[in-house]
Write a structure and sequence with these properties.
This protein has ten helices and ten strands. An eight-stranded mixed sheet has the order 1-2-4-3-5-6-9-10, with helices on both faces. Helix 2 (82-96) crosses helix 3 (108-119) and helix 3 (108-119) crosses helix 8. With 290 residues, the protein is of the alpha/beta class. The chain is globular. The two termini are 25 Å apart. Helix content is 36%, strand content 18%. It has two domains: 5-149 and 214-287, Rossmann fold; 151-199, no CATH class.
Length: 290
Amino acid sequence: MSSYADLSFQGVGGLDLHARDYAGAGGRARCPVVCLHGLTRNAADFEDVAPFIAAQGRRVLAVDVRGRGRSARDPDPSRYNPKVYAADVLALLDAAGISRAVFIGTSMGGLITMVIAARRLRAIAAAVLNDVGPVLSMNGLTRIAGYVGQGRPVTSWDEAAEVVRNINGAAFPGLSMQDWQAWARRSFREDGTGQLSLDYDPQIALALRGMKLRTSSLAARLLYRRLARHRPTLLIRGALSDIVGPDEAAYMRRAAPDLHYAEVPGVGHAPLLTEPAAQDALVRFLASVP
């Protein structure tokens, strides 16, 4: 795992936000990469992927979306929504002097990428949608809505590992206890009393509780088409995914015939991007982007 610099910037409402900044390996300058995590996750999800990409000569920014990781929690929970998240990411690009980048969005991060495409398409050189799209399975949406914001503090890292395994075990049947321990270290924070709690603001669940779950919308489909028909786009899908199933992936390929596609065997929502199939797809796709 390579080192990174901490990058601080201000988002909507002046909120203090954080990203990890991985320097690209030497050689000719190449388009940087911005990594955006899923709903309850943080920049640490890319702690293995970001160095892998940086070694290919690209600067990588892994963002802690507001309310997660080292980014501040928003006193106004209504700002926990993709439009604000997208505005935050654009503020990061401006602060870092980046005019265009490759975006890698896992789950919610892919939805943020689609919103960015609507707001500033020129900022997107290419995009990777990791197990997400404009049409989603109700099974996965229901599962996620059932656990977001429900975590309770635990008192040991072993207990934390059991929590993340209970949530994600069906999607990653091949992970070892050592893997779950590492996952817990990425997902929990320790306070001064020795208690561990999930590293996100539980208030992010308010938006889900206040809305009817929908598998798609006209707006989502239009956002996807704007992105995938105008910029090189790769869909990476977990073969066991309960969010992007075969039908959802088929729709995405019909709606954007030039879509690049890769399936990661043996995992569900969402691939960690350390799997051989995912990394092979990333290498091939990134090689096509200057």
